[in-house]
């Protein structure tokens, strides 16, 4: 099994608390998630608390959206940790973190996902690096997060 890491960052002209609220509550992801327009019929299910540790979000969608779930496993002012589990189109469990670093003029947001390639994904990952596939989604999501956080 090969380990992978995808990292993207952006500086957002907004207070860390504002950005934290958009990430720490899965209900807010509809405002900025890069995957929101992949399936207009996407089915969502929220459980646990609205925000913070224990908040859960599950989705089931078309072939592009797939099926999976996320759970916030840690949350403080500077970092939010999420367990991301994909069921379809392939099975995988990855760790995702959002780091919020105050910088001059705003907040640097670092979006990181780590995991391991196994089985078919291990072979596909050698031909099509996952960073090339998912990194673009992270960039799109950070752009949308920036727009959402900076509006208001």
Question: Key terms for this structure?
Answer:
152 residues, alpha+beta, seven-stranded antiparallel beta sheet, 3 helices
Would you write up a description of this structure?
The structure is a single chain. This protein is an alpha+beta fold and 152 residues long. The protein is built from three helices and seven strands, in the order βαββββββαα. The chain has helices at residues 16-23, 119-127, 130-150; strands spanning 2-12, 43-47, 56-60, 67-75, 79-88, 92-103, 106-117. A seven-stranded antiparallel β-sheet has the order 1-7-6-5-4-3-2. The protein is globular and about 40 Å long. The N and C termini lie far apart (45 Å). 24% of the residues are buried. The model has no long low-confidence stretch (mean pLDDT 90).
Main beta-sheet strand count, sense and barrel state = 7 strands, antiparallel
Class based on secondary structure composition and strand pairing: alpha+beta
Give start-end ranges of low-pLDDT stretches. none
Shape: globular
- Indicate the proportion of strand residues: 35-45%
Task: Give the mean pLDDT.
Answer: 90
Number of H/I helices: 3
Q: What is the H/E order? A: EHEEEEEEHH
First-to-last CA distance: 45 Å
Strand order, sheet with most strands: 1-7-6-5-4-3-2
Could you give a quick summary of the protein structure above?
The protein is an alpha+beta fold and about 150 residues long. It has helices at about 15-25, 120-125, 130-150; strands at about 1-10, 45, 55-60, 65-75, 80-90, 90-105, 105-115.
């Amino acid at each position: 099994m090969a380990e992978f890491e995808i990292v993207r960052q952006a500086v957002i002209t907004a207070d860390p608390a504002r950005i934290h609220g958009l990430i720490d509550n899965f209900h807010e992801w509809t405002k900025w998630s890069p995957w929101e327009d992949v399936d207009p019929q996407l089915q969502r299910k929220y459980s646990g608390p609205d925000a913070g540790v224990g908040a859960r979000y599950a989705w089931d969608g078309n072939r592009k959206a797939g099926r999976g779930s996320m759970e916030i496993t840690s949350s403080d002012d500077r970092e939010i940790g999420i367990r991301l589990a994909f069921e379809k189109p392939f099975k995988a469990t990855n760790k995702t973190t959002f780091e919020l670093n105050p910088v001059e003029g705003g907040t640097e947001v670092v979006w990181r996902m780590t995991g391991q390639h196994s089985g078919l994904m291990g072979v596909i990952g050698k031909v099509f690096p996952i960073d090339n596939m998912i990194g673009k989604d992270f960039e799109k999501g950070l752009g949308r997060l920036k727009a959402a956080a900076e509006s208001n």
